[in-house]
Amino acid sequence: MNEHDANITTEESVQGIMKVVDKVTIEDSGKYYTNEGTILPW
Amino acid sequence: MTDSKTVYFVTGASRGIGREFIKQLITRPDSVVFAAARNPADVKKQYPSQPPNLHIVQCDVTSDTSITAAAETVNETVGRVDVLINNAAIDNNLSIRDTPTSSLLAVLDTNLLGVHRVTRAFLPLVEKSEIKKIINISSDFGSVALNDRSFWGAYNISKAALNMLTIQYKNEYFKEGIIFIPLHPGNVPFPFLEDGLE
Fold this sequence. Notes:
The complex is a heterodimer of chains A (42) and B (198). Chain A has 42 residues and is mainly alpha-helical. Chain A is built from 1 helix and 1 strand; from the N terminus they run αβ. Chain A has one helix at 10-23; one strand at 33-34. The two termini of chain A are 23 Å apart. Chain B has a 6-stranded parallel β-sheet, with helices on both faces. Chain B has one domain: Rossmann fold (3-Layer(aba) Sandwich), CATH 3.40.50. Chain B is α/β, with parallel strands linked by helices and 198 residues long. Strand 1 (33-34) of chain A pairs parallel with strand 6 (179-184) of chain B, so a sheet runs across the interface.
């Protein structure tokens, strides 16, 4: 159970996350972002 | 003076992406970084010579007392938080059919209620910021739409609920200009699996 296939490093993840964090504005509030800046379905 | 600086507060800072957040954020120009962990010694040992812009604080997200103390430390040190990153999370490594109620409750206590506790306690500090960002580390495992493929019972439930918690905060604080983001970090190695914790 709880298998999980990692395909990126934590370093790459956080680099991507911080790009998203830096650019989001109030208009983006509540959007379900990924570390790549894409939006996920709920 | 911290007015020209950006103040980050990160929970779950001792391992996984929490540890990586600290590593990257302290290299940013003009950053002030609070690394919050249940066991601050786990963070301290990663920084034998502590960078001047790094503050390591005890913060157990299941304890209001601990969270309040951490918020007070931040208030006394810099007086605000620009970017709050709710990252602390656990998994029970069980299928839902094997998950006792007590175990589901424990996962929710950290992954859902922990974010609620920290957010409530830190909102007064975030309101003093001009940046006002609260980032809740979620997961695509919390997506109901995508969840025909994964079997992480309690963890997935906690992240789906965290998504809605984030939306409720977003709705209530939109006019105040506070930005709430539920964020999937990508398929990173899970620290729970690496170190066998919870």
